Amino acid sequence: MTRLITDRLMMRRAQPADVDAFHALVSHFDLVRMTSSWPWPSDPAFTKSRCVPCDPAMGMAGPVFHQRQLVGAMGVLCRDESGPELGYMFAPDHWSKGFASEMAAKLIAHVWARYDWDVIGATAFEDNPASVRVLSKLGFVETEPTTGRCRARNGDFPLRSFTLSRPTHP
């Protein structure tokens, strides 16, 4: 099983045994309100459906652990013709600790080494400046604004869109 390890964090593909810890994670409205697909109130069946390993052909996604505790989730997945996209969420108790930037840098290096993608996309709701800062730290460049569905808030909201191009080496 692929494991990505940094100085403080470890990420691996999701497993059915993660369901309880994952459900505790997505039981924070402040967290899921900044995602597109997670429902509110949290739905155990939906959480269970997300606790299976993703197809490695689509990319890498899964829970992120700090000191053996599930503190977030992250992935770069290519689900359709729009290309690979970075997504992440961390429990509110772990915000502002640099976890998202740290693990995303490791994950992005992994996908550049493994997949032949030229660009990774990402979005952040306009009312999520912390996520915008993470993407900026990682080198993502802002593109055209758009709108996106937020299931937890039951509506469409302004999104900021970003891209990160594959690094070129001389």
Mean of all residue-level pLDDT scores: 96
Into which percentage range does the β-strand content fall? 25-35%
Reading the helices and strands in chain order gives EEHHHEEEHEHEEE
> How many strand segments?
9
| Spatial order of the strands forming the largest sheet | 1-2-3-4-5
Task: Indicate the structural class.
Answer: alpha+beta
Q: Specify the biggest β-sheet.
A: 5 strands, antiparallel
Question: Helical element count?
Answer: 5
End-to-end distance: 33 Å
Uncertain residue segments: none
Helix content: 25-40%
**Shape type:** globular
- Give the radius of gyration: 15 Å
Write the layout of secondary structure elements.
Blueprint (H helix, E strand, L loop, with lengths): L2 E3 L3 E4 L6 H7 L3 H4 L11 H7 L8 E8 L2 E9 L7 E6 L8 H16 L4 E7 L3 H9 L3 E2 L3 E5 L4 E11 L5
Antiparallel strand pairs: 1-2, 2-3, 3-4, 4-5, 6-9, 7-9, 8-9
Structure characterization notes:
Strand 3 and strand 4 form a beta hairpin. 25% of the residues lie in helices and 32% in strands. The mean pLDDT is 96. The protein has helices spanning 19-25, 29-32, 44-50, 99-114, 129-137, and strands at 3-5, 9-12, 59-66, 69-77, 85-90, 119-125, 141-142, 146-150, 155-165. The strands form two sheets. A five-stranded antiparallel sheet has the order 1-2-3-4-5, with helices on both faces. The N and C termini lie far apart (33 Å). The protein contains five helices and nine strands, in the order E-E-H-H-H-E-E-E-H-E-H-E-E-E. It is α+β, with helices and mostly antiparallel strands and 170 residues long.
